[in-house]
């Protein structure tokens, strides 16, 4: 009994190829007219329409046509005229010509080919269809019409199980609102999700997005872009390691190594988190925020915890919140907050927390330190040169003496005037006091002058006090150095803050810790699918020796493969990071100072 069982087993193994070959389902057909001509066309049946179209059926696929040549022994047919190929209720393909091999379940169609799916319609000149893989492929140019867009490319491959198109070379997505150009796009027709690889642009009337790897939801008009990404608006350019874009809300945000360039006002804002609202013409940026603008051939830098820029290009308003620091080669300063109107040239250094004296505005111009409850700087919008400044309430000017001590002036209000960006005259009024070290031409100390007056006018030369004029002097006295004790050489409210002076651009960040950057979840490269045309034996053809196509055509070409790839197939929609979604700017400001 065991010997009989072994005999049956080995007999089955040895004859497996034959059994497998015989298991291939034969193509069935119906036709009004059939013609056999064994002498001229051996092994074929010529089929044609009279009233009803020629009909073929094979393993779930149905084909209608006007005429056909059926190679019955080879299980292969050629179809001509008004061809319609139906696979279940999900795939319909029409063409002028088609071939089908029942043994390999491989089809070829040409001449106004149209493949219709529930979400998309594919049109091309010629199409290969592998039923075993459930994949369609074209490489002579094709067009896919989606519910909202039209996609064209030189090469395309459709994966039916994933409902995914992989477009290669000269890919264009045309939507009423925008046009996408790319070298490679993976498109999922059910969701409308598109993955962009290689140099890609999304252009509309109001913006242009560039990236070399990105994701775009064509249904909801929002995207996530990485690798050399940027968004160009009419007057701004947004760059960053990771960008989020929502067309409906005219909103964009960026995370890590951000640059927002104002192309009209020649300014740049950097940081590590930013939001841009195009319709509102506003920019919000935080995490090591730094604004730089060109003024009279010199750059002005403003750093604070948070920077907001609003308004049209000709009426930009810049606001800085919390620990504002400014630097220019001939000036620097600090304040709690800052307001700058670029159209009028007015910049205000403000303390929003009046109870905290450490946040009181301070400004250094050359050797002069000025403090007060608020400081206003006025520049000429046309020449961009500094014109004047005003210090309101508790104005205090201190200049370190060339040898020792400090020259001091205080009053209720200070008005300063600039010449070629250098402070050359200061006017202080209401309850003014002065203390200055008087020296001769040899820099020898003559005495220390203390005076009270209703107002004082000071002139500077090379940033040093040259002359002082007292108006309505109430009291004044010059003390020999020995007669004025150390504790009498400082006016009430004196606070020298020279250690806080910012001397370089890098000094803007002194004392601050380097921010911890958000970890960016990138967009993976597409996983490489298996080759469409598999290697076969010489006598085992995908179609048939009687096919219109030569066997060389049914081979993979290097120029038709993915340019950007990994090594498998599925890609999930990337989750839009919380750091990229729109936030309440007020809450962000609060969070940033905790």
TrEMBL record:
Entry superkingdom: Bacteria
Membrane-crossing residue ranges in chain numbering: none
Pfam families xref list: OstA_2
Region forming the signal peptide: 1-21
Keywords, comma-separated and alphabetical: Signal
Domain named Organic solvent tolerance-like N-terminal: residues: 49-183
Keyword Signal found: yes
Record-given protein name: OstA-like protein
Organism of this sequence: Christiangramia antarctica
């Amino acid at each position: 009994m065991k010997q009989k069982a072994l005999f049956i087993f080995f007999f089955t193994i040895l004859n497996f190829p034959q059994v497998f070959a015989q298991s291939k389902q034969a193509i069935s057909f119906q036709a009004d007219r059939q013609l056999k001509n064994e002498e001229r066309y051996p092994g074929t049946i010529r089929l044609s329409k009279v009233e009803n179209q020629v009909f073929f059926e094979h393993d779930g696929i149905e084909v209608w046509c006007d005429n056909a040549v059926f190679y019955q022994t080879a299980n292969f047919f050629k179809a001509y005229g008004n061809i319609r190929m139906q696979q279940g209720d999900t795939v319909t393909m029409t063409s002028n010509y088609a071939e089908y091999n029942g043994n390999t379940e491989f089809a070829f169609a040409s001449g106004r080919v149209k493949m219709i799916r529930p979400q998309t319609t594919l049109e091309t000149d010629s199409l290969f269809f592998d039923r075993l893989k459930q994949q369609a492929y074209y490489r002579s140019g094709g067009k896919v019409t989606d519910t909202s867009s039209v996609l064209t490319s030189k090469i395309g491959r459709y994966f039916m199980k994933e409902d995914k198109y992989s477009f290669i070379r000269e890919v264009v997505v045309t939507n009423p609102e925008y046009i996408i150009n790319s070298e490679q796009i993976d498109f999922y027709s059910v969701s409308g999700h598109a993955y962009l690889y290689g140099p890609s642009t999304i252009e509309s009337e109001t913006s242009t997005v560039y990236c070399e790897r990105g994701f775009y939801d064509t249904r909801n008009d929002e995207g996530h872009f990485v690798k050399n990404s940027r968004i160009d608006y009419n007057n701004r350019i947004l760059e960053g390691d990771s960008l989020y874009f929502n067309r409906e809300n005219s909103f964009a945000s960026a995370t890590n190594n951000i640059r927002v360039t104002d192309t009209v006002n020649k300014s740049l804002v950097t940081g590590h988190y930013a939001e841009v609202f195009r319709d509102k013409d506003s920019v919000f940026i935080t995490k090591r925020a730094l604004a730089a603008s060109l003024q009279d051939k010199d750059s002005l830098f403003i750093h604070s915890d948070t920077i907001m820029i609003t308004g049209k290009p000709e009426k930009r308003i810049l606001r800085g919140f919390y620990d504002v620091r400014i630097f220019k080669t001939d000036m620097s300063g600090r304040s709690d907050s800052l307001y700058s109107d670029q159209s009028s040239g007015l910049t205000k250094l403000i303390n929003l927390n009046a109870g905290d004296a450490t946040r009181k505005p301070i400004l250094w111009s050359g050797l002069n330190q000025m403090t007060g409850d608020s400081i206003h700087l006025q520049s000429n919008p046309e020449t961009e040169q500094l014109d004047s400044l005003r210090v309101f309430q508790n104005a205090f000017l201190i200049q370190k003496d060339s040898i020792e001590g400090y020259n001091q002036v205080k009053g209720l209000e200070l008005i300063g005037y600039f010449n070629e960006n250098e402070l050359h005259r200061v006017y202080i009024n209401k309850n003014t006091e002065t203390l200055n070290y008087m020296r001769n031409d040899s820099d020898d100390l003559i005495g220390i002058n203390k005076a009270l007056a209703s107002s004082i006018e000071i002139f500077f030369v090379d940033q040093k006090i040259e002359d002082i004029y007292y108006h309505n002097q109430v009291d004044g006295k010059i003390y020999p150095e020995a007669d004025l004790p150390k504790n009498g050489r400082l006016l009430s409210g004196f606070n020298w803050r020279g250690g806080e002076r910012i001397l370089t651009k890098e000094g803007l960040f002194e004392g601050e810790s380097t921010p911890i950057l958000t970890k960016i979840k990138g967009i993976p490269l597409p996983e490489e699918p298996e080759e469409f045309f598999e290697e076969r034996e010489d006598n085992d053809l995908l179609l048939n020796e009687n096919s219109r196509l030569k066997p060389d055509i049914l081979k993979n070409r290097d120029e038709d493969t993915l340019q950007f790839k990994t090594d498998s197939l599925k890609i999930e929609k990337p989750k839009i990071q919380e750091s990229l979604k729109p936030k309440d700017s007020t809450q962000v400001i609060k969070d940033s100072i905790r």
